[in-house]
Design a protein that fits this description.
The chain is of the alpha/beta class and about 200 residues long. It has six helices and six strands; from the N terminus they run E-H-E-H-E-H-E-H-H-E-E-H. Strands 1, 2, 3, 4, 5 and 6 form a six-stranded parallel sheet that branches. Helix 3 links the parallel strand 3 and strand 4. Helix 2 packs across helix 3. The radius of gyration is 17 Å and the shape is globular.
């Protein structure tokens, strides 16, 4: 049975108190608990321990990161969590430097991660509709996929050796929500990941 770290990266504010991302995180926790997976949880908008967070990443086989798209990236509390936890883990626990040596500093950048064999999945809520992505005629993303927009997040996890699983997205949650259908898709998405892990 794989150990699962579940991170809720929503940062509440007046326009978005965080109910939807909390609901997705609660669904994930319930599904994992019902299937007997050991789960540790973190909420980046609440108090958390840096040392415990590093330990959580060493413990986890699978990390699920739930967050809304904010300013075309992750919310600031999630960015702070990732910056602080991964920087602390650069002491050799999560990564042994960047993988290069002084004798050959131009090669193997990004190969120092110690979390190989572990995986992560991003679960994202966003106001943009699905049709805004993967379509060169759209004025903002100009053909980018959601994963391409989130490339900095993916590269950060890859630096530490983690492998990406397919991203889940709940699109258009403000102007044209389909929350119940999103929940069904989310449950199916996680179930397929957990079935593959069992």
């Amino acid at each position: 049975m794989e150990n699962v770290l579940l991170i809720n990266g929503h940062q509440p504010h007046a326009a978005s108190p965080g109910r939807l991302n909390k609901a997705f995180a609660e669904r994930a926790a319930a599904l994992l608990n019902n299937r007997g997976f050991p789960v540790r949880r973190s909420d980046t908008a609440s108090a958390w321990s840096l040392e415990q967070a590093v330990e959580d990443h060493l413990w986890a086989d699978l990390t699920i990161v739930q967050f809304p798209l904010n300013s075309m990236g992750v919310p600031w509390s999630l960015k702070r969590y990732l910056d602080e936890v991964f920087t602390a883990g650069m002491d050799g626990r999560l990564a042994e430097g960047d993988g290069r040596t002084r004798s050959d500093p131009s090669r193997h950048y990004g190969t120092g991660g110690r979390l190989h064999g572990r995986r992560y999945v991003l679960s994202v809520t966003l106001n943009a509709p699905a049709c805004a992505f993967d379509n060169a005629s759209q004025p903002i993303f100009r053909g980018l996929s959601l994963d391409q927009l989130l490339a900095p997040v993916h590269v950060n996890f890859a630096f530490f050796g983690l492998s990406a699983l397919p991203t889940f997205a709940a699109y258009d949650v403000k102007k044209s929500p389909a929350i119940e259908a999103d929940f069904v898709r989310f449950d199916s998405h996680l179930t397929s990941i957990l079935d593959a892990a069992s």
